[in-house]
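User: Can you fold this complex?
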Amino acid sequence: MTHPLSVWLGAFVTLVVFSYLAKDNPVYRLVQHAALGVSVGIGVVVAWKQVLYPLWWAPIQGAVTGDGAASGAWWLLALVPGALWYFQLSKRWFWVSTLVSGLFIGVAAGLTFKTQILLILPQVGASLKPLNPFAGPEGFTWAQCGVCLSNLVFLVGLLTTLLYFFFSVRAEGRLVRVPMRVGRMMLMVCLGAMFGNTVMTRMAYLLERLQFLYGTVQSLFARG
Amino acid sequence: MVDWLAKLESLDRRWLYGGTVLVLLVPFVVAIPMPPGGATPATQGLYDRVESCPGDKVVLVDSSWDMGSRAENQAQLECVVRHLCRRRVRFVVTSVGVTKFAPEFAARVIEPIAAKAGYVYGRDWANLGFVEARGGMGAVVDGLCRDLHSVRPTDVKGTPVGELPLLDDVRSIQDVHLVYCITYAPVPEWISFVKGQHGTPVAFGSMSIMSPQYYTYLDSGQLCGMLAGNRGAAEYEALDGHPSLGTRLIMAASFGNCVIIVAALLGNVGAWAVRRRRRAGK
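Assistant: Here's the predicted assembly.
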C-alpha cells in the first residue's frame, strides 16, 4: 500500500510541473532536476537487483560457495570484455575498446539484417492484393466487390506515394504531376491521422495526472 | 463584432489550458454514460485470439511500460489480464529490454486482478521480471523463443523458474498461444522473430501516438491484433463486457477532443476576422 505522504508528495510535484504552463519558475526546475536524479538512482539499484545480481553475481557466488553449479564461475570472464569498454576514456588506448564495440556492432548488424528481412518480405507479399471481384471462390459478391475497391485505393495510395518520393523524376507533364499530387494528398491524410493520435496521447497523459489529483483530493475528503 | 472575433486569434494559451482541464474534470465528478462504440478489427483480432486459447497453452504478456506511458498502457494491460483470468488462461509476464521499472508496474496491475480471480502465483501465472536486452532486442527475443529458461533463469522474486510449476509446461515459443507486447512503441523484433520465424501470433498494445505505424503489419497479417491507446482498451472492455479504466479515460478524452475541435474552429474564425479587418482597413 502506498504511504499517504508519498501520494501527497506526488500531487504536489504534479502541480509544480503544471505550474510551468503558467510561467517558468525555480521550483519547477528544482523538481525537474530531482526527478532526473531519483530516476538515475533507482535505475542503478534496479539494474543490480534485477539484472546483475541474479544473472551475473549469483552464479559466481554459487560456484565459489559450492551452492550452485561450478560452471557459474565462467561468468567471471564477462569482466574482460566489459572492462574493455573503459578504454574509451583513454586517447592512447582507445583502439582496445574498438575490439569489443566492433563485436557488438557486428552482432547488431547481423540481427538487424535478419529482423528487416523477416519484417519487410511479408509486407511486399501482402501488397499484392486481388483487384478482380470475380476471382473469389464464390464468384462475384458485393462483399468481394467492396474488398476489391478497398484494394484499389490501397494500390493507388502505394504507387502514388512511391512516385512522390522519386526525386530523379521531374514533375513535368500531367501524367507524372497528377499522381504525385495524389501521393502528396495520401501523405497528408496519413500525417493528419498521426497528428490526431498525437493529440490523443497528450490528452491521455493529462487525464492520467488529473485522475491522480482528483483521487488525492477525494481521499482528503474521505478522511475528513 | 469582427473586432471581438479577431481577439480570438491572440487568445492567451493559458485560457485554453485552464478550459481543457476544467472540461476534462467533468467526467470524473459527474458520471456521464456514453454508448460504447463498435470494436475495430484490430481490437477484435486480439480478443478472438485470447478467446481461442486452448487449455494446454499459455499467453506471454510482455509488459514493458512504466510511469512514462502508464496513461495508456495500464488500461491495455488491465483489460487483457481480466479477460485471461475470466477464461482461466494461464499467462507468463516478461518485461524485455525497455525499462527496468516495468515488472513492478505490471505486478501492481496484475496482482489484484489475479487474486480476485483465484489465480495462484507460479501455477496459473508468473512474472519473470526484467530481461536485459544484451546484444540487442533481436537476440533476446530470439532467445526467449528458443529457450525461455536460459534467458530468464529466475522470476522477479529470485525464485528459480524450475521451481514454478507453470514454467514446467512452458519452455519455448511452441508452448505459447499468443505473445501480447505492451509498451510505448513495441519493437518490430517481436514480429520478425515470434511471428516471422516461429509462426506464433503476436499482438501489440501501443500508445495512440505510435499506433499508425503498426497498421501495415495488421493489414499484412503479421500482427493478429492491436490495442491503440485508451480507445483500444475501451473497445476491448466493451467486448469483454467489463467497462473499466479504459472506458473511463476515453470518455473523458472525448470531452477533451471536443474542446480541441471548438478551439480549432474559434482560432480559424479569429484568423478570418483578422484578415477581414485588415482588408477593411486598406
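Chain B has twelve helices and six strands. The longest helix of chain B spans residues 245-281.
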